[in-house]
Amino acid sequence: MIYIIIPVHNRKYYTQGCLDCLEQQTYRDFTTIVVDDGSTDGTVAMIDTYFPDVIVLRGDGNLWWTKAINMGVQYALDCTANSAADVVLTLNDDLAFGPNYLASIMASYEANKPCLIGSAVVDITNPDYLEYAGVSCNYFTAKWIRTSTIFKSSYQQLAAKHAIVPTDDLPGRGTIIPLNVFEAVGLYDEQNFPHYMADVELSVRARRKGYRLFVSVGSVIHNYTDATRNKKQSWQSFLKGFFSFKSPNYLRSRYAFAVRHAPLKQLYFLLDLGRMTTGFLLNR
């Protein structure tokens, strides 16, 4: 059984599109859990009308990503009779995928388990642009290199050569996680990573417990990048992001990750801060 967990908030259009994709899957052994964090745009009514089999868990607008995902994971843990056999699939609602997506990623998982296995992510407006297919991270220098850069490949080139590729971490967009991983390493860390980095951090914890991490290159999801792409920022908004948990630059989360996973904690954090600042300057 796959327990598919999708956190949503006021993006009814994207949520409906994602659920439509799940309705068309050839692989049918799954339960969909939508965690709605206080939407006011009719999302829940839409789900009740068009997707009555979807389980909806309700929040009050203060869950954010990590608490929402944990709510779904806990529901799955409470439901399963065999955490070693069942898995979670974390999805975002701004994703689209073909009817064989679940069959593909589950075949990759079954062939390589025990593991966590993610999806290749491409831009829905430019399917040859490989947005994500794994990363390599240097935990001394805080340098993260995308698989597409390592292999010097577009999505089509990478998919033609590799069924799976190893990765040092995994995001929350299309990742299969055995339920017994949560029993081994705990849930996502709500305190230190309330909105960003909780997905990456949990996958690193799992890897350090001995679970291998892969990306299934043939299991492709298409991302509506306009819904998530960071717009150009002013200096004021960039600096404000250091102190807002709603920003991927939130210093508390970045520092917590360094403390937990970097051999040279302070050096990693300073280099990470430097790379964020350099990236901001290059994108101005």
TrEMBL record:
<keyword id="KW-0328">Glycosyltransferase</keyword>
<keyword id="KW-0808">Transferase</keyword>
<dbReference type="InterPro" id="IPR029044">
    <property type="entry name" value="Nucleotide-diphossugar_trans"/>
</dbReference>
<feature type="domain" description="Glycosyltransferase 2-like">
    <location>
        <begin position="4"/>
        <end position="128"/>
    </location>
</feature>
<protein>
    <submittedName>
        <fullName>Glycosyltransferase family 2 protein</fullName>
    </submittedName>
</protein>
<dbReference type="GO" id="GO:0016757">
    <property type="term" value="F:glycosyltransferase activity"/>
</dbReference>
<dbReference type="Pfam" id="PF00535">
    <property type="entry name" value="Glycos_transf_2"/>
</dbReference>
<dbReference type="InterPro" id="IPR001173">
    <property type="entry name" value="Glyco_trans_2-like"/>
</dbReference>
<comment type="similarity">
    <text>Belongs to the glycosyltransferase 2 family.</text>
</comment>
